[in-house]
Specification:
Helix content: 55-70%
CATH class of the largest domain: Mainly Alpha
Structural class: mainly alpha
Number of strands: 0
CATH superfamily of the largest domain: DnaJ domain
Order of helices and strands: HHHHHHHHHHH
Largest sheet: none
Distance between the termini: 37 Å
CATH architecture of the largest domain: Orthogonal Bundle
Number of domains: 2
Length: 256
């Protein structure tokens, strides 16, 4: 009984955080165990009445003077935001691990061009998306700017949200050692650890130079571009929230 009550208290506290979070990264900035628990809770709450925490959802809703559907919709909005950001992730679009080395990115692009170019019967739209991602990731300055945004917008939940979906462009990347022997292809489903919290680990090595560039002071133009991106993201999130609120109202009316 004591363990059950402890689990219920943890779920109630987690639900309060979900309702109060303005953006999903706020949930996953703490210790890794807490972040992992909150991600599991978030995905479970999104199951609605089938959630194993539906009792806690109803209790939280009563305490906040809202409906259980409001709590569930909030979880759905946060998950939709996470998935939308991941779909727009340049590393995922190109099909390489997050923060992959420049050589890995170059080798992957050669593979993509060979397999997916329209001239060889590939998907033109998918090829163009991969080409746009590569053009940014190949340029040190543009990549440094993107990685600064990536660490804030994707890094916090990349360590808890398993990349169990297949990258858009399937295939492996083979790099070579100095002696010419090919390395084993990297696991494209699992990103390398990224420094996003006090308990997260960092894989340095070849990333040191890029990280130094990423931490350099931002120019005014870069700040303006980042502010514009954030404003667009907030507008998109608010639009999604309004759509979900409308759907919830229609569902409630139909149920009545």
């Amino acid at each position: 009984m004591g363990r059950l009550m402890a689990n219920r208290r943890a779920a109630l506290e987690g639900l309060a955080l979900i309702l109060d979070a303005e953006a999903p990264e706020e949930l996953f900035a703490g210790p890794e165990d807490d972040a992992a628990y909150l991600y599991d809770l978030l995905t479970d709450v999104a199951r609605g009445r089938r959630s194993s925490h539906y009792w806690e959802i109803c209790r939280t809703a009563r305490g906040r003077h809202v409906t259980p559907e409001h709590v569930i919709d909030r979880a759905l909005v946060l998950i939709a935001t996470i998935e939308e950001r991941r779909r727009a992730d340049l590393y995922r679009i190109l099909g390489v691990p997050a923060l992959a080395s420049a050589e890995t990115i170059r080798q992957r692009w050669l593979e993509v061009a060979k397999q997916h170019h329209p001239d060889v019967g590939g998907d033109g739209a998918r090829f163009r998306r991969a080409k746009e991602a590569y053009e940014i990731l190949r340029d040190p300055a543009r990549r440094a700017e993107y990685e600064r945004c990536w660490l804030r917008a994707l890094g916090p939940f990349e360590r808890v949200a398993a990349r169990d979906d297949t990258p858009e462009l399937q295939g492996s990347v083979a790099t070579r050692r100095h002696d010419g022997t090919p390395d084993a292809p990297p696991d494209l489903a699992t990103p390398p650890p990224v420094s996003v919290g006090p308990l997260a680990t960092v894989r340095l090595g070849p990333l040191v130079a890029r990280l130094e560039l990423m931490l350099a002071p931002l120019a005014a133009a870069e700040l303006d571009a980042i502010r514009a991106d954030v404003a667009r993201s907030i507008h998109a999130l608010e639009a999604t929230r309004d759509e979900l609120a409308t759907l919830a109202a229609v569902k409630h009316a139909l149920g009545a």
